[in-house]
Design a protein that fits this description.
Number of helices: 11
Strand content: 15-25%
Distance between the termini: 52 Å
CATH architecture: 3-Layer(aba) Sandwich
Number of strands: 8
CATH class: Alpha Beta
Oligomer: single chain
Mean pLDDT: 88
Order of helices and strands: HEEHEHHEHEHEHHHEHEH
Amino acid sequence: MPAWRALAFFLACLGCHGQGTTKELLRSQLLNRDVPLVVHVPTAACVARWSSAHPGSPLRLVLFLPGAFDGPEDFTREGLGTFLSSEEAKGNLPPSLWVAVTHFRGWYADRADGTFPYERFLMDELIPRMEARYPGFGGSGSTRSVAGLSMGGFGALNVAVHSGAFSKCLALSPALIEPPFPQVGWFIRRSLKQTFTLDPTVFAPWNPWKHLGGACELVVGCGTEDRYGLAGACRDFAQVCLERNRPLVLELRPGGHDWTYWTPAFKRWMPWLLGTPAMPGESVPGIPFGPMIGP
């Protein structure tokens, strides 16, 4: 099919669905429930302008994984969708499809007893359905990114290594946990035991200290005032990665374990997640990948 026909078909499909950042429910057969999502879809005009100026440039899908006490609605509340729309309209960022999910305290993993296959939902239902609905976004590992914060950062590392379906992973303040999970409070610990059990051997495929997020391009970021001490844990994690010749970038900046750190961090790393250089006037250390950085 000629390039202009392919673009016309793509824009026609895009126009059949809502644009902007919207909430929706997606019915999962695997989980036997509706899953609340927030989906960011660029306008057809932004896609047409970008595609005309950058012919053949792929458009990315980004899977966004919230933390333990966060949800997909935070993507909207923190203005990330509005920021994306503004930067897309200005031509500073390529149009991209973002999908923020609800974790149900399943921590983005398949429950050990098989009763709640959340990772299968992500990879076998959610992403294929989003890519079928919005053709031209994602479609392969080279055009997909995954990003998460706190327990979502833990999930992003795991989904990246298990699926091999993402080429970029951004883990902010990731929960670098191991059984019996002394690093988290009892509320989260109880659901972790339900999902993974306490057997270190069973947990090994989800242990970020062992798999290091696989082979995708990896950025780990954390606030230096993180109340759970994750800045030090992230530094140790980066050191292990370096010793095992696993490339990554570690970014440590002032901030805590909250959205006052996460919101600007996500905005700062969005260009990288989308495969573009930093935005005009923004300096992001550590690109391209190199040695560990941070104070």
